Amino acid sequence: MGKVVLYSSVSVDGFVADADDQPGPLFDWLSSGDVPLDESGVLKVSQTSYDYTRPYWDQIGATVVGRHVFDMTDGWDGKPPGGIDHVVVVTHRPAPEGWDPEAPFHFVDGVEAAVAKAQELAGDRMVEVAAGDVGGQVFAAGLIDEVRMDVVPVVFGSGKRYFGSVDAQHLLADPDVVIQGNRVLHLRYQVRRRPS
Length: 196
Known about the structure:
alpha/beta, 5-amino-6-(5-phosphoribosylamino)uracil reductase activity, Bacterial bifunctional deaminase-reductase C-terminal domain-containing protein, globular, 8-stranded mixed sheet, Dihydrofolate Reductase, subunit A, RibDG_C, DHFR-like_dom_sf, 4 helices, 12 strands
């Protein structure tokens, strides 16, 4: 099975959205360069960011998100973002009325079941878990192998935290990737496992 990775762009003070659920300038780095990141040509980053981000995106087989993110994006109109094959939505509610059952979205109750479903769908590829409340729950459950952050030079002061409501201390390994792009610092940490 592939790694389970907690990921998001994040403010310097640890928020993935402001208090009104808006990302503000967190994604500005995705239009701060001249190298197209995908086929649309809309996302353009520095060569450094491309060399780090594109191979990561290519490894993702499934993404886990919460129902809140799904609802805010209108389910990406049934097309997973970034060319990802499958999206697993953690929810206690069924799919929205009129939802296309053929769309590669899977509605699962509980984070453990969601990660298991995403791993099944991803096979040997990575499972990406969106940071925030659901990501924090997956992290607290000990199901995350790696933490990736695209740290953007902005301070929000308050908002939606990268690790959600996690309130216990968790030690990560030293960062094994630290890359500076335009308007972003890419960081990657392996998660230290607690002795059994």
